[in-house]
Amino acid sequence: MNHHTSDAHTLAAPYALGALNPGERADFEAHMEACEACRQEAAEFGATAARLAAAAALPPPAALKPQVMAAVDGVRQLPPHVPSAASAPAVTAVLRRRALPLALAASVAAAVLGGVALWQAQNGAELRQQARQAQQQLDEVSGVLAAPDARTVHGRAANGALATVVASERQNRAVFTAAGLPAPGAGRTYQLWLGHGSTMRPAGFIDRDGTVVLSGSPADAGAVGLTLEPAGGSPRPTTAPLLLMALPA
Known about the structure:
Elements: H1 12-16, H2 22-32, H3 36-56, H4 64-73, H5 89-145, E1 151-156, E2 162-168, E3 173-179, E4 188-196, E5 199-206, E6 210-213, E7 223-230, E8 243-246
Antiparallel strand pairs: 1-2, 2-3, 3-6, 4-5, 4-7, 7-8
């Protein structure tokens, strides 16, 4: 798909996500050489995409490590390979030194694979559900970042965290990304808000660093807020906002 020069400024997000064809990518890179704003926006979208990948990653289950370690104890190690008596003593020593680590590595690999297979068999349905949810979140966020009318604004929270909001008026959606957000503490959670005049409406939660799609409609909202609330959230803010910034126009 060809783009006029006047449309080049809208390609920063698709460029960062690798959504341009080779010709469009070459054209946009040539455009960036003379456009500092697009260079900066492409870099910001790239950083946001990297944080998105981390946000969508699934942590290993807590039960996997003890299962693997228990399996290691029950796996018989392979004996070292013993060459013929005619081999030189030096060669024999080298082979023995190599055989023991390799045998141990093979045993551990077998135990790990066995433990993973067992865990997957027992938790396959839950794993597939988590994967579907992660893929859905990834699709939603990518859709906003790649929107032709995507606009970006940056801010810094009172606790030092960096925040980025990308909004698409056409999709009526907005994405919030945080970097450097400290742990909320026991019994606390970070809650997001959309400011509609003097009213703050709940817009979801974020767990430390990550990327989320704001819930609710940003169409008539003027600002995004972040507060520290009791676990489970609140119907309205109960603490002073850590962050309050205007939605990108």
